[in-house]
Specification:
single chain, 638 residues, 36 strands
Length: 638
């Protein structure tokens, strides 16, 4: 299930997507061939919006939920590819799976999304933001996405939104599984695991391996050919291995202890390095990047009585990115401590939270350069208040963060929802947010130590309708960002002749999103359209690699034991640079899928992406894979 619920934000389309008329006709012609977006289950529990479990129907937030069934049916190999099918989200990637990937929520920079995996924060203290290419989709059981600032709940980073990823939790009995898959470009997948629960103890184990021969991510038609005609004709494949463990122990009916571990390692080929020391110049054919991710968390949850509950959590993550033969290595280590208190009085919920986060960076640009080794910490206290009664919903949050280098920063948010009828709901919210510069942006050879934190102010309005298999939502938002950090050729205090990071811009992220779904017997239709204007407020230029219009249109049809699906993804043009001189053309692609239960315990998934073999780019010089096919089998005994 993909549920998109505009409970606090709304967006409306201003004009049609360019390139959208043909896909609209195609989707209609296919009748019901697409990925289903089932109507949201309003009784479902969500934790991302306010960092505490709440019924989806009680939230005042623009939330989407993706479950494991949807992930498996997608046939996708990367987390970002699944998220890109949601309203309000775009991605950019320098080549294929495993290569550098950015994710933009409502046009916000990739570093403006706070990312958590089983409550463990994932971030990079070099360029900033989570390394999406290093997160293993095979280990993810559920994804929750909150669009809009949430710094008053999560602190630094949550300027554009929050994404929480969850691994599987064991249920009663024993549930093993195993799966294999094959696809274009020599893609092969294998996975297996077991989960279960016995008495007070529950567990979940999973491992997966995936590899692909890949394709040439920088063919001669895309890259600048080295003088004397040298190009890089090699295929840039990838190899990924991952595993996770989740253990739970119910100490008493009201107290639970949970431990999580995850490890992932992905190696991917790419093309960049040119040696001009030889005549003629040589373009290396075996450039390889290596992403390693490790996360660990320990959580103790306790409900002391009907009024008071607590949660104590200690988390740790390590992200390592390195390249060969052109050496580069950066390592980020994050440690977090959380003590959360909840007080429930009838329709009132009060939260009081103490949190500490510690960031450390080790960066080595070359084997001979001086190692950059820096760290910092942030201590925070936050208060929250929620009220749900009758047609009214209210959420208030305030948080004060004290950074070891920048001092104090206070953020706040307020959101209100009113049910005009049982099916129609209006929402409004406002909030502030910030992001502290990364250690690399301040202290590397390209850093400026006087950088100031980026900050934002957001307001939004929304309307949501849900009844009898029909949903519709609209959210309109405006997010103003100050002290935006960019890399520029010259900057005050810059020691590098190549350029440095500096606070040079203001950005305005404004737009509207319209989303809807309709169930007609065995057919489910869905659509979303984003009309946005993420721009540099000083120059008026569109922010790099973000479009003004993008959307999806699809349907799914359940017939004779099969689920047949079709989905159209479309985007208008983007620019690869801040000056808007390098154009990335718009695109429209059609994806088809089919799934069925072959036997009681065996399921089949088949998918063809980019059916028309559309040639398009997320980043200049880097090609996408073109038409690809995938077939997978999964055994899950009942």
């Amino acid at each position: 299930m993909i549920s998109h619920v505009c409970f606090s934000r709304g967006r409306a389309p201003a004009r049609r997507l360019r390139h959208a008329c043909l896909p609209l006709a195609l989707a209609s012609a296919f009748g019901g061939l697409a990925h289903a977006q089932d109507a949201p289950t309003l009784g479902e529990t969500v934790v991302t919006a306010n960092r505490t479990p709440q019924a989806l129907s009680d939230l005042v937030g623009d939330v989407s939920i993706i479950d494991r069934k949807t992930i498996e049916r997608s046939g996708a190999t990367g987390v970002a590819d699944v998220l890109a099918r949601l309203p309000g989200i775009e991605i950019s990637r320098s080549g294929g799976v495993g290569n550098t990937t950015s994710l933009f929520i409502r046009g916000a920079e990739t570093r403006f999304t706070a990312v958590y995996l089983d409550g463990v924060r994932i971030d990079s203290q070099s360029t900033g933001g989570a390394g999406w290419e290093g997160i293993p989709l095979s280990q993810i059981d559920r994804i929750e996405v909150l669009r809009g600032p949430a710094a008053a709940v999560y602190g630094s980073d949550a300027v554009g939104g929050v994404i929480q990823l969850f691994t599987k939790r064991g249920d009663e009995g024993v549930s093993p599984y195993a799966g294999i898959g094959f696809g274009s470009k020599g893609l092969r997948k294998i996975e297996g695991g077991v989960s279960g629960k016995s008495g007070l103890f529950d567990y979940s184990f999973g491992v997966a391996h995936e590899e692909s021969k890949g394709y040439n991510v920088q063919p001669a038609s895309k890259r600048n050919v080295v003088k004397d005609g040298y190009t890089s004709p090699d295929r840039d494949g990838y190899n990924s291995t991952s595993g996770n463990v989740k253990l739970g122990f119910q100490i008493t009916p009201d107290q639970r202890l949970e431990a999580t571990l995850l490890t992932s390692d992905i190696k991917a080929g790419y093309d960049t390095t040119v040696s001009y020391r030889t005549k003629p110049p040589i373009l290396f054919r075996d450039d390889v990047s290596n992403n390693t991710l490790r996360t660990a968390g320990l959580t103790w949850s306790a409900k002391w009585n009907d009024i008071y509950s607590t949660r104590v959590q200690v988390t740790d993550s390590q992200s390592v990115y390195k390249t060969q033969p052109s050496f580069y290595r950066t390592e980020t280590n994050l440690r977090g401590y959380l003590f959360q208190n909840e007080f429930r009085f009838g329709p009132h919920l009060v939260t009081a939270t103490l949190e500490r986060r510690e960031d450390a960076l080790e960066n080595a640009p070359t084997t001979s350069s001086k190692l950059l080794s820096r760290d910092r910490s942030q201590d925070a206290i936050s208060l929250g208040y929620g009220f749900v009664q009758g047609p009214h919903s209210l959420q208030l949050h305030v948080r004060h963060d004290r950074d070891s280098e920048f001092g104090g920063k206070t953020t706040g948010s307020a959101a209100y929802g009113y049910a005009i009828t049982p099916s129609l709901r209006f929402t409004a919210s406002a909030g502030t947010a910030f992001r502290v510069p990364t250690l690399y942006q301040r202290f590397s050879e390209y850093g400026v130590s006087t950088l100031r934190p980026e900050s934002s102010q957001n307001v939004e309005l929304g309307m949501n309708y849900a009844q009898d298999g029909t949903t519709a939502g609209i959210v309109v938002y405006r997010n103003r960002v100050r002290n935006l950090i960019n890399f520029v050729g010259t900057a005050t205090g810059c020691a590098s002749t190549f350029g440095c990071y500096t606070n040079v811009n203001r950005a305005t992220l404004q737009g509207a999103t319209l989303s809807a779904s309709q169930r007609l017997g065995d057919v489910t239709l869905r659509a979303s359209l984003d009309v946005q204007d993420p721009k540099d407020a000083d120059t008026g230029n569109l922010l790099a690699r973000r479009s003004k219009r993008h959307g999806t249109l699809g349907a799914d049809w359940r017939v004779a034991g099969w689920t047949l699906g079709a989905e159209v993804q479309s985007s208008s043009k983007r620019y690869d640079d801040a000056a808007n001189t390098i154009k990335l053309g718009g695109y429209t692609v059609l994806n088809l899928s089919a799934s069925t239960q072959i036997t009681r315990d065996l399921n089949l998934v088949a998918r063809v992406d980019n059916v028309g073999n559309k040639d398009y780019q997320f980043a200049r010089l880097y090609a996408n894979a073109g038409r690809t096919a995938y077939v997978g089998l999964k055994w899950t005994p009942h």
